[in-house]
Amino acid sequence: MLRLIALELRIVLRDRAAVGLLAVLAGALALACVSGGGLMQSQIEGRAAAQTRQTEAADQMRERLANAELPPEDAILTPYRLRQVLIAPLPVLADFSSGRAPIDPYTTTVSMRTSRDTLFQRSGLENPELLVRGGIDLGFVVVVLAPLVLIGLLYGLFAADRDSGVARLIVAQAGSPVRLIGARILPRLALVLLPIAAAVLAQLATGPDIAGRWQAAGVWLLVASLFLLFWAACGAWINSLDIGAETAAFTLVALWALLTLVLPAAFSAMVQASNPPPSRFEQIAAARATEVASTEAYENDHPEIASGEFEGRLASIRKTWDVAQKVEAATAPIDRRFATQLAAQQRVAEALSWASPALIAKRALEQTAGTDPATGQGFRAESEAYLAAFRDFGGDFVERGAIMQSADAARIPRISWSPGGSLAWQAMAALAALAAGLLLLAARRFARLTLA
Fold first, then answer.
1. Residue closest to 200 by CA, chosen among 41, 372, 45, 369
2. What is the pTM of this model?
């Protein structure tokens, strides 16, 4: 068997077309490594800048609370002077599978004036043109390009020998068709997997030192291996049919296009159509109308003129707090509907993704990398919950007309969110089952093969 594998490896490496395909794969991997490294660096720098803002906000808060000479008319405004900077943890493998990392916000600033609809005004995306051009990362190479390279290497796995009429001679030398196919699949699969593994090691060697990064990279590479094994199994099964090499090539490319391009696009349209979210313009209109009405109502209910500067400042922030509460109450049903529809879309998308191995692999790679949609939405949900707690904390002082003291700093809400980090065992099991099933079908057909 080893002699057969070595012979097949030499045959592949002598084929200029095969070497050309491998060169394209190597170039794509190099580009993906550079692109992924740039993304990871920008994520690190963005979080470092946010950390600086967080430290500055904390220092300003301590100085303000420790200032015993602060006049009451200024001290009463302290709840509206507080700032809290929230920062999502750095994804462990953002340089492997970028996923939602270039788009989803990973930091935000919370204050008493912040509302749910203004919590994430800034996105992590610096250049909107990136959405149009798209990007390339190791996940893209594994899911889209590597299967095409593998198809180019093994589309004529046995069909070419059948076309040339030398199949009987080759099978006689190999001992059995199953042994021959195994000896041909292994070196071709290794030639595709080894450059990917080398790229993974390069990213680990040059990337940041994050806890759990090597373990996550091992799982990521396992998912990639199972996905490519699935395509190798597809090639073996197609070649077990009584078809020519050209037909096998067309069939494999058509299957790749269906699973990688057509089904994901169709599923995306179905997800959007199945649970359309409410219009954000409706939310803006409701917030504006409530703000105007609440302002007028507050002024009508409180026509008295404050007797001093302290009372005037207190009345001002009470008015702001009262209007903000009413706006939040008016827009809360729209926010809940939006969240409900978004959750429904996710459920539909996850259910449909099981129909495409490409989507299964993509979702598993992004989940392992920490750049999947669920992780980003988890940070959003936690930030919204923190915003509510922070506003309640500050609003209590406004309603009581009390001045914050240094001892109150310990009561300021804290956030300690971290991604779930669950492994994509279901996705790996599905890919392994698909690959094993196709390999068994191919082995069964080759075992019964009879050549005239």
1. 369
2. 0.86
